[in-house]
Amino acid sequence: MSRHLERLLQLDSLLRTRQRPTTVSLAQELEVSERTIRNDLAFLKDRFHAPLEYSHKLGHHYTESEWRLPSIPLSKGELFALTVGARMLEAYAGSPYALQLRSAIARLSERLPETIWVNVQQLAQEHILFNAGAEIDLDPDIWHKIEDACSLRKRVMMTYYTASRDDISERKLDPYLLHVYRGTNLYLIGYCHNRQKFLWFRVDRIRKLEILQEYFTPDPQFNAKEYIGNVFQHEVGDKQLDVKIWFDAKTAPYIRERRWHYTQEIEQHSDGSLTLKMCVRGINDLKRWVMWYGKGAVVKSPPELVELVRQEVEAMSNNYAVKTI
What we know:
CATH architecture of the largest domain: Roll
Distance between the termini: 79 Å
CATH class of the largest domain: Mainly Beta
Domain Helix-turn-helix type: 8-54
InterPro entries: CBASS_pafABC_assoc_protein, HTH_11, PafC-like, Tscrpt_reg_HTH_DeoR_CS, WCX_dom, WH-like_DNA-bd_sf, WH_DNA-bd_sf, WYL_dom
Domain WCX: 241-316
GO molecular function: DNA binding; DNA-binding transcription factor activity
Pfam family, one: HTH_11
């Protein structure tokens, strides 16, 4: 945005909110000369036909309150889309952008007549509902520090909680990118100097983060899209797995209606069942995903995944076994 346009937007806001704005008070507020203010006011009147007048009682003011300074050509539909987007972010508790987006939408709404803005808000609140399910506790300060570190390519030192081991560790990391998975799962992907490999870290499990003065050079062999594309859900895994999972006829429609992985192939069977084939990383997430479908899914390969599911089913069976006295 040019400095002149930015100043015009600020001037427009002051004319609507400040009591009895004068040339002197506006110049002081915007930190420019009185001559600049006079030129800007003349520009608003000549170029945009602003209904501006001056009186001793009101100062510089608009004689038509519905008049709006044309800036961004934003339609009612576009504003509605932004409003819905903001409410969607609010539904995902802990979103670091919800406040900024609401503020931006409020500023954009100032360019529309009040009746249109009220109608947009009412429609979004009464007819579109969001529920993100389980909430996370996200520290916005940590999120924005990660943004800065990724942008500046600076190493970070973080205190991280690993849920699977119930353990706290200190790690030096080269932060590459942030990945938002299913709206509420926020991950930092980077090169961990402790483990000497690329790892995923849940942002809400980062207890403390410090940006170091050390810069890092990204690995030219690292391809973000390819790296994320190879994983299943969000688990990286150590090796690629050729996976085959059979789904019965009752479950098959739920598998066909989505694209679970970019490598997937579906083999249809005459009885309505199907076999899903894909090449992915992340065996533990695969196990949890397959078991979500219960008896409707059977792992055919690889053998290690078959065994992992078998052990889990056996342990669950023992938990629910009927004990006899």
